[in-house]
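Postdoc handover notes: sequence design on the structure in folder B. Input tokens:
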């Protein structure tokens, strides 16, 4: 079949993207689903920093590639052997499909699935196939999803069935922003009630961590960002105190406000200065958790003696350490009962043709979550 899709052909485009147009909208050929694969009609897809990191060259990807990994849609066709979804099902897309058989999957850590990592780095589906073509030449899939398109073929393990009553724009957020931010709090850190929390970086992921901290019963929630509008939103969502990242003596001010530092600090900005701040405001015996992905060449200097003497923990969180089949339905239910009001993080609805301007807004930090509606 022929589909309209947004294709990235070169890395490192310069902003403004509305002028340089790193993503071109064109017609591609999409093969039908193979064994274990499904054809999904994309209904909504969110713009995320993981997409932006491919556009600006911060994370190298094989090109050409259809971007987009945070999405929801309707299954239209299933390939041979598919068992978990059927035609007509509404689904949320998952950007790390789980093979179910490798050592991490067998240990209950599907976010670390080894075949999925190999496929995602290579730009293929979990099967190793590429179902997208342009003039007979293969086009790569971002993270096995390639959701900036009218239709996508994915592994069945890249889809989680959801209740049909959930609007597609809200459902899409659960595929990345929600599971990454909420999962970091619930799964990676396992925040206990009464804890003191700091969230550094208030994009879609960071604000979801803030919502999860509220739901987990945190006693104090400190929010840090460069933008006053996001700090205001953080206060509306439950932050007990907010700080602009440019304020002088910020570390001392946060440690004073929290009487020695926080129990858990979450770095969600994807920058080394933000991670350094998160580390410095974490109290003795506390945990610093990062879901940010700065350029792989960047490094963090910390003292091993401090780690030992203060029993400190620095922990990574990928896909919120989630088990998607378990966690996405749970987080949706928490949303429905008012415990995770993720709908308050929706910024704008846009159309596919406005995608480059949308990434300008994302790069400037002027938005939380924009969603393409198909």
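Designed sequence:
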């Amino acid at each position: 079949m022929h589909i309209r899709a947004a294709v990235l052909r070169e890395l490192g485009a310069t902003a403004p993207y509305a002028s340089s147009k790193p993503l071109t909208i064109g017609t591609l050929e999409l093969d039908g689903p193979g064994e274990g694969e499904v054809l999904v009609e994309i209904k909504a897809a969110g713009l995320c920093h993981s997409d932006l990191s491919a556009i600006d060259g911060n994370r190298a990807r094989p090109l050409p590639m259809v971007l987009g990994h945070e999405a929801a849609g309707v299954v239209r066709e299933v390939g041979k052997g598919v068992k978990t979804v059927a035609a007509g099902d509404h689904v949320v897309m998952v950007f790390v499909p789980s093979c179910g058989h490798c050592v991490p999957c067998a240990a209950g850590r599907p976010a670390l699935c080894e075949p999925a990592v190999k496929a995602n780095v290579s730009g293929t589906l979990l099967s190793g196939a590429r179902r997208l073509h342009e003039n007979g030449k293969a086009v790569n899939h971002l993270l096995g999803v390639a959701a900036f398109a009218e239709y996508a073929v994915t592994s069945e393990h890249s889809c989680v069935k959801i209740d049909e009553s959930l609007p597609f724009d809200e459902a899409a957020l659960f595929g990345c922003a929600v599971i990454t931010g909420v999962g970091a709090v619930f799964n990676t850190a396992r925040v206990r009630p009464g804890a003191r929390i700091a969230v550094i970086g208030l994009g879609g992921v960071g604000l979801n961590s803030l919502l999860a901290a509220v739901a987990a019963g945190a006693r104090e929630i400190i929010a840090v960002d460069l933008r006053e509008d996001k700090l205001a939103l953080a206060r509306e969502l439950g932050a007990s105190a907010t700080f602009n990242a440019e304020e002088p003596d910020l570390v001392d001010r946060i440690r004073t406000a929290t009487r020695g530092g926080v129990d858990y600090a979450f770095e969600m900005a994807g920058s080394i200065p933000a991670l350094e701040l998160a580390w410095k405001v974490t109290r003795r015996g506390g945990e610093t958790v990062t879901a940010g992905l700065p350029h792989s060449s960047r490094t963090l200097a910390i003292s091993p003696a401090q780690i030992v003497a203060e029993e400190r923990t620095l922990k990574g969180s990928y896909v919120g350490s989630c088990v998607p089949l378990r966690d996405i339905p749970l987080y949706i239910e928490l949303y429905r009962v008012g415990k995770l009001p993720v709908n308050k993080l929706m910024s704008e609805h846009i159309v596919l043709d406005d995608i480059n301007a949308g990434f300008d807004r994302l790069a400037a930090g002027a938005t939380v979550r924009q969603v393409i509606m198909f």
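Context for whoever picks this up: The chain has a mean pLDDT of 97. Don't rerun without checking with the PI first.
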